[in-house]
UniProtKB/TrEMBL annotation:
Boundaries of every Flavin reductase like domain copy: 18-172
Gene source species: Pseudooceanicola antarcticus
One example GO MF annotation: oxidoreductase activity, acting on the CH-NH group of donors, NAD or NADP as acceptor
Protein name per Swiss-Prot or TrEMBL: Flavin reductase family protein
Domain of life: Bacteria
């Protein structure tokens, strides 16, 4: 089958997010004048490793925010944010933090999560996350579509729970890192394999 998105799709549900999958989940924490905020974003990824940089995109608006959602509004205000890794063990808390709470209502509290302080920025992080990346905003890019924004940041600090280090390497199978698929589906990383690039021993 073939369809042009501008004309809609002929399926019961939009397949786009199922096609572009799996997608890492950026569990973005921020602190602003209204308090602390935490929300998961599936349009998230690393975009550079020298210097280390990440991005996430916020789509759609929120009636109690002038532009976009709480995360983007607070990052505009403070210039910092933290990307927390979601493990399988934290799936329910991550899901709870996706609720459309009023601006200023703390998702950490709503999801029953303990906060920890960041080291290089004034921002909370999820204490139980297997890893967290402290970030300083580099730019916010307006995307096509109403209230669609891409946020880019440079990583200024890295937290790793040493329970997830094996032989000096971060073990995603121990964390069982969550990724977002299409529809209401998620996946947990439980199996990995290695490949050498051509010419590598």
């Amino acid at each position: 089958m073939f369809y042009e998105p501008k004309s809609g799709h002929p399926l019961p549900h939009n397949p786009f997010k199922a096609i572009v999958a799996p997608r890492p989940i950026g569990w973005i924490s921020t602190r602003g004048s209204l308090g602390d905020n935490l929300a998961p974003y599936s349009f998230f990824n690393a975009v550079s490793d020298s210097p280390m940089q990440v991005m996430f995109s916020s789509t759609g608006g929120k009636p109690d925010r002038e532009v976009s959602k709480d995360s983007v509004a607070q990052i505009r205000e403070t210039g910092v944010f933290c990307c927390n890794l979601v493990s399988f063990a934290l799936r329910d808390e991550m899901n709870a933090s996706s609720a459309g709470l009023p601006a200023g209502e703390d998702e950490f509290a709503a999801a029953g999560l303990q906060k920890a302080d960041c080291e290089t920025i004034d921002c909370p992080r999820v204490a139980a996350a297997p890893a967290a990346l402290e970030c300083r905003l580099t730019q916010i890019v307006k995307l096509l579509g109403e209230s669609n924004y891409m946020v880019l940041g440079e990583v200024t600090g890295v937290h790793i729970d040493e329970d997830f280090l094996v032989d000096g390497m971060f073990d995603v199978t121990r964390a069982q890192t969550l990724s977002r698929l299409g529809y209401r589906d998620y996946a947990a990383v439980r199996e990995v394999f290695s490949l050498n690039r051509p010419g590598q021993g």
